[in-house]
Amino acid sequence: MQELTHYIRQELGSLYTHTELFALIRIILEEVTGIDNTGIISDKFNHLSSSELSKIKDIIGRLKKSEPIQYVLGKTEFYGLNFKVSPDVLIPRPETEELVEWILSEKAAGPVSILDIGTGSGCIAVTLAKKLPQAEVNAWDISEGALDIARENARINNVTVNFSNQDVLSINEDNEIISEGGKYDVIISNPPYVMDSEKKSMDDNVLNYEPHVALFVEDDNPLLFYDKISTIALDLLNDNGKLYFEINRDKGDDILHLLKSKGYDQIELRRDISGNFRMIKGVRTVSGSKQTYNHE
């Protein structure tokens, strides 16, 4: 055990912090041996087979190329649930868990209709379907590869989500989706919001592996998706329906004013656990209601 952990530290020590390395060692050994962390700490395995050693070396080789451990293993955890991931989808982030927690804390009694725009791995849609069994959950994405992963995640977690291939930027007032109108009580989106100019400050494990189509927007139009989604949401939300976004921490005020300009009410900009403004909510109310705005 000590010899093995020394080997992993030697191979990866220059690439990860002490805390990250400790977590990686636990994850690698659990994955390869099938023994949980308690068993690993108590040294319940005496030796590794040649195939297990080979698998560890393969994992280490991929990590040394900055590939995220979630892609190496093909899975991750989100909100206590297990999710499959691949380079077709973003790796779910803790701040997205906070967005889900906010939505769940405000859930309406009884059945609700929910739409997740840009679902990716399906982490938001699947989690809401799991936690709100009476809800009808729908999810869109432009990527068929992402939708394949999301459908598998719905199966893994034994929930029903209605997935659809949609390019939200191509939807206009003549689209059948819009003409139906007033379908949803809640719309959520974690759209691309990282500006191209921010690439230079990002780590290789993000830049070289995660899907750029789900991450980046051009510097000259950073609110492209927020503008489009908040516009069509006015037609898709029922009266008093709620629109939630995950946002770039530097664009909170801009997005607040965008929602204000479109007539959303009860707008609330919320900080994440790190103190950054990373999520926002607006309510589609009947015309004539007084707008209110809040920075929590």
Automatic annotation (TrEMBL):
Q: Which InterPro entries match?
A: DNA_methylase_N6_adenine_CS, HemK-like, N5-glutamine_MTase, PrmC_N, RF_methyltr_PrmC, SAM-dependent_MTases_sf, Small_mtfrase_dom
What EC class does the entry list?
transferase
Q: Which reaction does it catalyse?
A: L-glutaminyl-[peptide chain release factor] + S-adenosyl-L-methionine = N(5)-methyl-L-glutaminyl-[peptide chain release factor] + S-adenosyl-L-homocysteine + H(+)
Q: What is its EC number?
A: 2.1.1.297
Q: Which residues form the Methyltransferase small domain?
A: 113-199
According to its UniProt record, what is one Pfam family this protein matches?
A: MTS
The Release factor glutamine methyltransferase N-terminal domain, residue ranges: 4-74
Name a biological process GO annotation. Answer: methylation
Which positions does UniProt annotate for substrate binding? 190-193
Binding of S-adenosyl-L-methionine: at which residues? 118-122, 141, 190
**Can you name one GO molecular function term for this protein?**
peptide chain release factor N(5)-glutamine methyltransferase activity
Keyword list (alphabetical) reads:
Methyltransferase, S-adenosyl-L-methionine, Transferase
Q: What does this protein do?
A: Methylates the class 1 translation termination release factors RF1/PrfA and RF2/PrfB on the glutamine residue of the universally conserved GGQ motif.
The record's NCBIfam families line, in alphabetical order, gives: hemK_fam, RF_mod_PrmC
Q: Which PANTHER family does the UniProt entry name for this protein?
A: HEMK METHYLTRANSFERASE, MTRF1L RELEASE FACTOR GLUTAMINE METHYLTRANSFERASE
Q: Which family does the record assign?
A: Belongs to the protein N5-glutamine methyltransferase family. PrmC subfamily.
The protein here is known as Release factor glutamine methyltransferase
Per the UniProt entry, what species is this protein from, by scientific name?
Fermentimonas caenicola
